[in-house]
Design a protein that fits this description.
The chain is mostly helical. The chain is 61% helix and 7% strand.
Length: 92
């Protein structure tokens, strides 16, 4: 499978560790249709299978919480990132 980076907060992300460091919930959702392929390309096979198995009818928020659980981002970390993102948007 082809490897390709994700853009998160201006950084090119190629590992789950990098994704966690540069985590942006909205940007992750924007990769919803390609995220399982990204995982597979970087040899995160178990995570890729789990993401691909998610119900395609999930709304973005449910999908995001499920994916974060799969890749090891806690609900608290997700909520904190979301809040930080919203606060930054208000300041613009």
């Amino acid at each position: 499978m082809a490897q390709f980076p994700l853009k998160m907060n201006g950084a090119e992300v190629c590992t789950l560790e990098d994704l966690k460091k540069n985590f942006n919930p909205a940007e992750l959702v924007s990769y919803r249709n390609r995220f399982a392929a990204w995982l597979k390309g970087w040899d995160y096979d178990e995570e890729a299978v789990a993401v691909k198995a998610l119900d395609p009818e999930l709304v973005d928020e449910e999908w995001l919480f499920s994916v974060c659980e799969i890749i090891g981002i806690s609900d608290e970390e997700l909520k904190a990132s979301w809040k930080k993102m919203e606060e930054a948007a208000k300041q613009e």
